[in-house]
Amino acid sequence: MDKFLIKGGQPLKGNIAISGSKNAALPLMAAGILADGPVTISNIPGLNDIYTFNNVVRVTGTRVTFDEEKQSLNVDPAGLYHYEAPYDLVRKMRASFYMTGALLGAVGYARVSLPGGCAWGPRPVNLHLEGFRALGANIDMDGGYVIAEAPGGRLPGGSFEMKPSSVGATVNLVLAAVRAKGTSVIRNAAMEPDVVNLCHNLNRIGAKIHGAGTPVLEIEGVESLSGGTLDNIPDRIETGTFMIAAAMIPDSDVTLTRTSKKDLGSFPETFAKTGASVSYNDSDIRVKAPDRLPPVSIETTIYPGFPTDLQAQWATMMTGADGKTTVTDHIYPDRFSYVPELARLGAQIERHDNTAVIKGPQPLKGASVMSTDLRASVSLVMAGLAASGETEVLRVYHLDRGYETLEDKLNAVGADIKRVSE
Ligand SMILES: CC(=O)N[C@H]1[C@@H](OP(=O)(O)OP(=O)(O)OC[C@H]2O[C@@H](n3ccc(=O)[nH]c3=O)[C@H](O)[C@@H]2O)O[C@H](CO)[C@@H](O)[C@@H]1O
Ligand SMILES: C=C(OP(=O)(O)O)C(=O)O
């Protein structure tokens, strides 16, 4: 298992190119099996989650070819014959559950393993299942698998209101509904850029989805979708992560390229309160660390609110703030595995229910740390960069799920991170 050895205390200076979004890419890849011809998806990052999902899609007989150099992924569903996503793959990656909607839409039948819990507690799929039923699917459970079936091979379509709004369930229902016989309406639909991008791309190959980016999606089912080219968007979470890293490490001056403010929702407004100097251009964002970091409390909410995928990084930055900060997660109330690890680095941080309370400024000092999820792990790397001495971050395979060449990108702007394979 690989680990990182980080020598902290260096400012970050230079350019970092932002990769394509992991969370927007996965729905596009699932959408590939809905088309009548091959689709080519641009700006796909070389990440373990992408490789795993390639294998999930391949199980169905679909051909998936990834040109890593061009970051271009081709999905050819001509050989689609096996309508299943097995437990072995779904347990590695929850997004595999998108195969339920995609197979229902493509062939009217899916046998997909129920995803289990995850490192930060329960992640239910009740809305996905209730939504499929509302669109006309018969849903059964068998040996840990969901069996979803469209009577007569094609869903009739229907209406469903989500409470709460869910990114995963919206993606799954859109995939199931685009080739339904009738029209479907999803109320309180997710407005996250990942969902909007999926809808726009599906429309490019013949879908009729109205209202993307609003809480009401109306999907007129179409007989077929053509093959074609789909475009992935820059990773807004990677962008936010590096913006926070630049703001928390004194004297840093970092320009993020191949990204934009467009999909960041209200994050720039919140980020401005850190006092960091930020300039946004068409395709790059420059961040200079502030001289003094004030405490800025946040609460996660659905888009355009503060993303749950950035709360751990924000809490880490706030260990250096001048005063007391609270970080509250309303989406995933147990997503705090980083708290005891930051404490090992010397942070004054405590968890109370779904809130981390951080008392700063507290200089961090290198130690061995480990986390059990992706965003918590990247936060420990950032803490290691800010800390004095050497920090060892164990089990970096979590990072490899969602940050493309993280250590190379950071080392190129002055960090000192060594990957060690054990
Ligand atoms: C709204 C939100 O911020 N979603 C995030 C969530 O997406 P992900 O798709 O995993 O989660 P959802 O958007 O579905 O969940 C939003 C909320 O709805 C609840 N829920 C969801 C589905 C369901 O069937 N029943 C149910 O009760 C969840 O427990 C959660 O409290 O995690 C991803 C990975 O970290 C992030 O990239 C997404 O931005
Ligand atoms: C946890 C994440 O992904 P997933 O929903 O695939 O687990 C994430 O992107 O932070």
Explain what the structure shows.
The protein has 422 residues and is an alpha/beta fold. It has 2 domains: 2-19 and 234-421, Alpha-beta prism (UDP-n-acetylglucosamine1-carboxyvinyl-transferase, Chain), CATH 3.65.10; 22-231, Enolpyruvate transferase domain (UDP-n-acetylglucosamine1-carboxyvinyl-transferase, Chain, Alpha-beta prism), CATH 3.65.10.10. The protein has helices at residues 22-31, 48-58, 87-90, 98-107, 126-134, 167-177, 193-204, 236-248, 267-272, 311-317, 338-344, 374-386, 397-402, 406-411; strands at 2-7, 13-17, 39-42, 63-67, 72-76, 84-85, 109-113, 138-142, 145-149, 159-161, 183-187, 208-210, 216-220, 228-231, 253-257, 277-280, 284-288, 298-300, 324-329, 348-352, 355-359, 368-370, 390-394, 416-421. Strands 22-23-1-24 form a 4-stranded mixed β-sheet. Strands 2-15-17-16 form a 4-stranded mixed β-sheet, with helices on one face. Helix 1 (22-31) packs parallel to helix 2 (48-58) and helix 4 packs parallel to helix 6 (167-177). The radius of gyration is 21 Å and the shape is elongated. The protein starts with a strand and ends with a strand. It binds uridine-diphosphate-N-acetylglucosamine and phosphoenolpyruvate. The site of phosphoenolpyruvate has 7 residues, from helix 12. Uridine-diphosphate-N-acetylglucosamine is lined by residues 23, 123-128, 164, 166-169, 192, 302, 307-309, 331. The modification 2-(S-cysteinyl)pyruvic acid O-phosphothioketal is found at residue 118. Pathway: Cell wall biogenesis; peptidoglycan biosynthesis. Its EC number is 2.5.1.7. UDP-N-acetyl-alpha-D-glucosamine binds at residues 94, 309, 331.
